[in-house]
Write a structure and sequence with these properties.
The chain has 200 residues and is an alpha+beta fold. Helices cover 36% and strands 13% of the residues. It has 8 helices and 5 strands; from the N terminus they run ααβααβααβαββα.
Length: 200
């Protein structure tokens, strides 16, 4: 599949089948994800990979509170056989920018960063994961929760406190879906509205 086709086909899947993802597929996706750029080649991302009913079940128990369990999409989401939680931490960046070749940048403290590149870089890697899923023929969904849910997730899977979940990526085979719903029915903004050439 060429790159333009991958981009055209990329959409969020909210209805998964229970069909398992073939062995090796998740590793291929992660190998692509870690090819993302990162400031100073700090690579301040980690991926918590959960596969199979037991691990994925623990994820849902930790993440979904009573209100969220009333989500009408939940049955289709619960069938996803793989969950990847992308995480970011400033620590690898602060360590990298304390090294001699980067020290002059003055970025050895988190507050010195105008933009938290650990979040940017982990987001780049997550996008590669989503695009890779399309190339593999899989459905994928990225979604986020609140800090209370992330705290429960950290406790359940012993994630160190300095690693911040960006959300979660569900991976699996898409079940038949009845076309776009909800936000997906909104029109894409035209380039003339979002691109400012030569100035605002």
């Amino acid at each position: 599949m060429d790159f333009d086709e991958v981009i055209r086909q990329r959409r969020m899947c909210r209805n998964f089948s229970e069909r398992p993802v073939p062995p090796g597929t998740v590793d291929r996706l992660l190998e692509r994800a870690v090819r993302a750029p990162s400031a100073g080649f700090s690579q301040g991302w980690r991926f918590l990979v959960l596969e199979g009913q037991q691990e994925v079940g623990r994820f849902w128990t930790a993440l979904a509170d009573e209100a969220w369990r009333r989500n009408p999409n939940l049955p289709g989401l619960l069938r996803a056989p793989v969950v990847v939680v992308p995480l970011a931490s400033p620590q690898p960046y602060l360590e990298r920018y304390s090294e001699p070749d980067k020290m002059s940048r003055g970025l050895s403290e988190a507050g010195a960063w105008a933009v938290p590149y650990w979040l940017v870089d982990a987001s780049f890697a997550t996008m590669l994961l989503l695009l890779g899923a399309v190339e593999e023929g899989l459905g994928a969904l990225f979604f986020g929760r609140d800090e209370a849910a992330y705290q429960r997730l950290r406790r359940e899977f012993a994630v160190p406190a300095h690693w911040q979940p960006l959300g979660a990526v569900l991976l699996g085979w898409s079940a038949t879906e009845p076309g776009p719903r909800g936000s997906a029915t909104r029109a894409r903004r035209p380039l003339g509205e979002v691109v400012h050439r030569g100035g605002w």
